[in-house]
Design goal:
The chain is an alpha/beta fold. The chain contains eleven helices and eight strands. An eight-stranded mixed sheet has the order 7-6-5-4-3-2-1-8.
């Protein structure tokens, strides 16, 4: 990775994939740090979707708390060859005031698309008078539910409409009824940037790209081309991965010289894992490449 400083992390587990209220998680970064400590983690990464704006704030919170946190981003992309979405984690990036780096321009495109899509969905829910136990919403309710998020998500519509946790049986039923891409009452596609272009943008901006949950999104076929434009790591451990997915990720890591990561993809009340650190990777298995990422982040 071109970073020579070495650092020793305390033995234990790392959760290298979490989300905060800066995107579509329900907990603030400070609350995530508290949760990580309570679970006995040795470190974590906050990888909010398609935004670099808060990376320095995350780093400052990490320093104040005295707890190792990687400030990352999860970049949403589309592989034109397969028509499937591909997510890429990126570490070691620094935001600019005018979002002028290649990766910031990629992320800005996605956030704009997602905001427009979610506003349209919220308007449809409001216009039709859809209610949950008699409760209806306005677009302003959804904006309020988003709080400090960099854009709007379907989770914010669900929060404004139902106030339910993802773990409530009614949540998935209502989400499917409203937003299923096949038969939802309200459905509309979001445009995403090309996966190869996004990985190039991460590298050109000085970042370290890691393929996120390839088993969940069936991203395996993209690996050779992604390595060709600078992919450096692959996420083996994730709540949607089976033992076969983990085996395949390790096989590809050995074949292409990638380092391995793992994380819960924790979204608090808005996601599947019930606690931070439920999925992750040991400090020992993560090894020096991940230790170097933490060392690099401490200097940014």
């Amino acid at each position: 990775m071109g970073w020579e400083k070495r650092v020793t992390l305390a033995p234990g587990r790392l959760d290298l994939h979490t989300h905060s209220t800066f995107s579509d998680g329900s907990l603030s970064v400070g609350e995530l740090i508290d949760e990580a400590r309570a679970q006995g983690l040795s470190g974590m990464a906050v990888t909010d979707h398609d935004t670099l704006a808060h990376l320095q704030e995350i780093r400052a919170l990490s320093r104040r708390a005295g707890f190792p946190v990687l400030a990352g981003v999860e970049v949403s992309t589309l592989n034109p060859a397969t028509g499937r979405k591909v997510h890429v984690l990126a570490f070691g990036l620094v935001p600019t005031a005018d979002e002028s780096t290649p990766v910031e321009r990629v992320c800005l495109f996605t956030r704009t698309e997602r905001a427009a899509n979610t506003l349209w969905l919220a308007w449809q829910v409001m216009r039709t008078g859809y209610s949950y136990h008699g409760h209806t919403i306005t677009v302003n309710d959804v904006i309020a539910a988003a709080g400090p998020s960099s854009t709007l998500y379907k989770q914010h519509i669900m929060e404004a409409l139902t106030g339910l946790s993802k773990h409530d049986p009614d949540y998935d039923r209502i989400f499917h009824e409203l937003f299923s891409s096949k038969d939802g009452l309200f459905r509309r596609k979001v445009s995403y940037p090309d996966t190869l272009e996004a990985v190039r943008a991460i590298r050109e901006s000085g970042g370290v790209p890691v393929l996120a949950h390839p088993g969940q999104m069936d991203s395996w076929s993209a690996v050779p081309d992604l390595v060709g434009v600078g992919l450096e790591g692959i996420e083996a451990y994730h709540h949607a991965h089976t033992p076969e997915h983990e085996r395949l990720a390790h096989e590809l890591a050995r074949e292409y010289g990638l380092f391995v990561t793992g994380g819960s993809d924790y979204h608090g009340r808005f996601g599947v894992p019930e606690r931070i650190g439920q999925y992750g990777i040991s400090v020992e298995e993560a090894g020096q490449p991940v230790a170097e990422l933490f060392a690099r982040d401490a200097e940014l």
